[in-house]
Design brief:
13 strands, Alpha-Beta Plaits, alpha+beta, diphosphomevalonate decarboxylase, Ribosomal Protein S5, domain 2, 2 domains, lyase, seven-stranded mixed beta sheet, about 325 residues, Ribosomal_Su5_D2-typ_SF, binds ligand 2P0, four-stranded antiparallel beta sheet
């Protein structure tokens, strides 16, 4: 039997940054994301005759590090199902450019979905979200489409994502600006740990998230894109400030990231609806609406002619 599942990546508007339990991927705070229509992962799984696993990414054998991460996840699922069978995992990342933006969010959501079918586990979406979380924290949110909230919970069984609005009707539009698709130097896991342990501002982070989350839920309800953008940008900068204030400090921003961020207040003063959010890398996702997108595209192109631009819209959950 072969089973195939597709999941889409998501962008956090209220960020997940810090693990209370690194092994179970239990976060200190809730987070809120938008599932996107681009950057999807399609994963097929099937049982192999022996006990050995095989992992292929875009038709090639996985790197040793990624292979191990997938095998750890397979072990977890085998344990639950009292199985020792080897599994073939074939995963394909649909990325619009060669920028290497493969995401662990869509990757582990798709793998969880495919294994759910292979082992005929009949997990509910909530249980699937818990399982995907064990592969990668942000994967818990990619089970659902549209706006999604990951509630931090108290343990393995209540730390899962829930849909807020699976089919958003607002004309929210994102422009992905890729300066540099190279792998980041500090992994998310490492970065979170350093921020949690050493930033003097980390104790304030849960309060910031709580406030931003309440306001974001209201903004989504009102379909107020300017308010959504403003909150996402401010929450993103607060997350990155944890990294700048870690000891030793680190940052995912490059000169180009800063350059673009610094232009935003100037463009907004001219009446352009545009806000930014940045994850654990140098690239920026601009938040705007359908009507303003051509203006934003032109502005970015004029300043960063080398950057790869991709338009993204709200996307679906697991299929
Ligand atoms: C997020 N990020 O909320 C945050 C914001 C990056 C910046 O979740 O260690 O791959 O697998 O739980 O989910 C990226 O980290 O981390 C991430 P793990 P993950 O989207």
């Amino acid at each position: 039997m072969t089973t195939t599942t597709t999941a889409h990546t998501n962008i956090a508007l209220i960020k997940y940054w810090g693990k209370k339990d690194p092994q179970l991927h239990l976060p200190y705070t809730d987070s809120l994301s938008l599932t996107l229509d681009g950057y999807s992962t399609t994963t097929t799984t099937q049982f192999l005759p022996g006990r050995q696993d095989q992992v292929q990414v875009n038709g090639h054998p996985a790197s040793p590090a990624f292979f191990q991460r997938v095998v750890n996840f397979l072990d977890l699922v085998r344990q639950v199902n009292h199985s020792q069978k080897g599994i073939l995992v074939q995963t394909t990342n649909q990325v619009p450019t060669a920028a290497g933006l493969a995401s662990s969010a869509s990757g582990f959501a798709a793998l969880a979905g495919s294994l759910n079918r292979l082992f005929q586990m009949n997990l509910t979406p909530t249980q699937l979200s818990c399982l995907a979380r064990r592969g990668s924290g942000s994967a818990s949110r990619s089970i659902f489409g549209g706006f999604v909230r990951w509630q931090h919970g108290t343990g393995d069984f209540d730390s899962y994502a829930l849909p807020i609005d699976e089919h958003p009707q607002l004309p929210l539009t994102l422009l992905s600006v890729v300066f540099n698709g190279q792998a980041k130097k500090v992994s998310s896991t490492q970065g979170m740990e350093q921020a949690v342990q050493t930033s003097p501002f980390y104790p304030q982070w849960p309060q910031i998230v709580e406030r931003d989350l309440d306001e974001m839920l209201l903004a989504i309800q009102k379909q107020d894109i300017a308010e959504i953008g403003q909150l996402a940008e401010s929450n993103c900068l607060a997350m990155h400030a944890l990294n700048w204030t870690a000891r030793p400090f680190f940052t995912y921003f490059t000169a180009e990231t800063w350059q673009l961020i610094n232009l935003l207040p100037i463009w907004r003063q001219r009446g352009v609806l545009v806000y930014a959010t940045v994850d654990a890398g140098p690239n920026v996702k601009l938040i705007t609406n359908q009507e303003t997108l051509p203006v934003v595209r032109k502005l970015v192109q004029s300043k960063f002619p080398q950057a790869q631009l991709t338009t993204l819209y709200p996307g679906p959950g697991l299929t």
